[in-house]
């Protein structure tokens, strides 16, 4: 799980319903989770879309506890935007020097920057996200 990075268990979500399912199970079990974007999401959906998805899911399950992690792959400018957008953690797999600079800037905002994507349950192909999350977190 994401514990290696000091994060709660990670669940990769691709839409609002999956995020709601993850938060619902987390609330039922009394656990905090990490809502993780798809791999390389910065180059496909973008941070604004991901954050809108998270806001909607958190409104649907307001008493669930979660962190957010956005995968920026090797795109430094997009990683910087993500850091400034309010996510809890960013994945950046670009140049080491850039990673260190980004991490330094992110530290002031209390955002974790990692060059490693955590192990997660990916809900992309799960027909029953609630069951999959229950099984993963139990």
Describe this structure as you would to a colleague.
The chain is α/β, with parallel strands linked by helices and 138 residues long. It has one domain: Aldolase class I (TIM Barrel, Alpha-Beta Barrel), CATH 3.20.20.70. Helices cover 44% and strands 17% of the residues. The chain contains 5 helices and 6 strands, in the order βαβαβαβαββα. Strands 5-4-3-2-1-6 form a 6-stranded parallel beta sheet. Helix 2 (46-60) packs parallel to helix 3 (76-85) and helix 3 (76-85) packs parallel to helix 4. The radius of gyration is 14 Å and the shape is elongated.
Please describe the structure with a list of short key phrases separated by commas or semicolons.
single chain, 138 residues, alpha/beta, TIM Barrel, six-stranded parallel β-sheet
